[in-house]
């Protein structure tokens, strides 16, 4: 007696799906593309043979690994899953290098801030808060011919 809902493997191969189908637990009918990739790369009989040689408790993980490798092999026929792993390792090393550079810069800036005496902070505290500086904070930035410099010094 055949199963009313065929697995993706039996549906793809256009055959009846018996109750003891070796591929049914790992390739449900809801995801036919998964088996199509596996069949294209490894072949249905090879996958069935591989899964039957593995202990039952490890078959699900093996089927997932086979499906993943088949998917990436279809996407990238030359490198497959190894290409994805290599790309991710490169991204990790670039990010680690950027992190090391950023940490070095933070350390450098922190050491510069500690090595400089707090002269600027003490000078700012001793000045009257309402006094107008003789020069604008960014000389040359507010240089306009139509506004007198005294007005600019008061406002900026």
TrEMBL record:
Region feature Disordered, mapped onto this chain: 110-144
Recorded superkingdom: Eukaryota
Pfam families assigned: LOB
Amino acid composition bias (Polar residues), ranges on this chain: 110-123
LOB domain: residues covered: 5-106
Entries under PANTHER family matching the protein: LOB DOMAIN-CONTAINING PROTEIN 26, LOB DOMAIN-CONTAINING PROTEIN 4-RELATED
Family affiliation: Belongs to the LOB domain-containing protein family.
The name this protein goes by in its record: LOB domain-containing protein
